[in-house]
Every structure is written in C-alpha cells, then in structure tokens.
Design a protein that fits this description.
With 234 residues, the protein is mostly helical. 67% of the residues lie in helices and 0% in strands. The two termini are 63 Å apart. This is RGS18 protein.
Length: 234
Amino acid sequence: MENPLLLFPQLNISASKDKSYYKVMKPTVKEEPNKASKAGAKQKRNRLSLLLQKSELHEGEHLGKLGNLTKASSVSPEEAMKWGESFDKLLSQKAGLDAFTKFLKTEFSEENIEFWIACEDYKKSKTTNELFPKAKTIYETFIQKDAPKEVNLDFQTKEVTSQNIEQPVITTFDAAQTKVYRLMEQDSYPRFLRSDPYLNLVKGRNPGRPALRRRSRSFTVNDFQGVRPDFSNW
C-alpha cells in the first residue's frame, strides 16, 4: 500500500502551516495582558496627578484669600492694637474697616458690614429727595425677603423697617443697623481679633501670601500591583 503522505501531500503541508501560524500568533496573545497592565498603570498615575493638582489649587485659593488680609503693610502694630480696644475704634479707621471687611468675606458674611456702611451713607443725605432712592435701594438689597444680600434680622425689626420705608426719614434703618452692628460685635469681631492676619499685624509681621507646600502621599504595595517598568522610552 502506498504511503498516504505521498497520495495527499497537502495534508502534511496544511498541518505544518497551522503549527507555524500558531507559533506566530501565540506570543501576540500573551502580550495583551502586558498592554492592559501598562494602560492601567498609566491611568492610575494620571488620576493621582489630577487629584494632587486639584488639591493644591483648592489650597492655593484658600491661602490667597487669607493672604489678602495682610496687605495693609502701612498699618503699624500700635494702630492695629487699637482695633482690639473696641469695635467702634476698628470701624472708625479706614484701614481697620477695610481689614474687617476682607475678613468677613472669608466667612461669607460681608453683607453685614456692607449694610452697615450703606446705612452710614444714608444718614449723611442732605435733602429729603436723596432719602427715597437710597432707602429703596437699601431695602431691596438687604432687607426684603430673598434680597440678594439679605441680612439676618428678627421678624419684628424687619416689619418695622418695611413700614418705615413708605415714608423714609433719617432714622428709617436705625433699628436694623443696630441689630446688625450688635451681631458683628458679638460674633464676628472676636473671631477677627483671634485671626492670624490680625495677630500678624499686631506683631509687625506681613508675610503676604504663604508659600504652597506640596502634599506628600504614602504609596502602598497595591498601587504598584500589575505595574511593570516600560523601557520603550529610554
């Protein structure tokens, strides 16, 4: 009987080609997990870098706000110390009023001092014709419900002020201004005196904007699982 390989030589050729094809394709299949691990490692590094950037940006914004309070370099320690004697002395000096206003902005309560300043300006009106438009603006900005800079007033004080606005006089906002003044004196003023920017002024220091410090991060073994060095860029 004749050799089957001689009768059907194509069978042997086909088998040889299949084996050769398998040998060529097999390494390609093995490389897929390596590519996936490299991609995963790169994504981890990118996410970590993004988180650090966002954290430093947020920290920089916060430090910038506090640093702005110490820009009053012309204020002497003696002058700053007088601000601590009474709330009146703080507001009576332009530099003190400016520093306190900036401090309230860091606490998101600047509407209180802005209302107080508006009332002080209102009481300086020289004619009755000036009173009505100023009173209307103050009421719509700080007093009425859902005003853009509504101050915290009790119901009775708000009602009295709303009635007085119909025929405004010099004393129209006195009750409301007194309430807001007492609130700042008893609440915000003590915190201002304890704040670092004010204490720096008293000590004669003006550090300006603090330098940013890069936050360190402790890496664990899990962060490097499946990560292999990539020497392709060397």
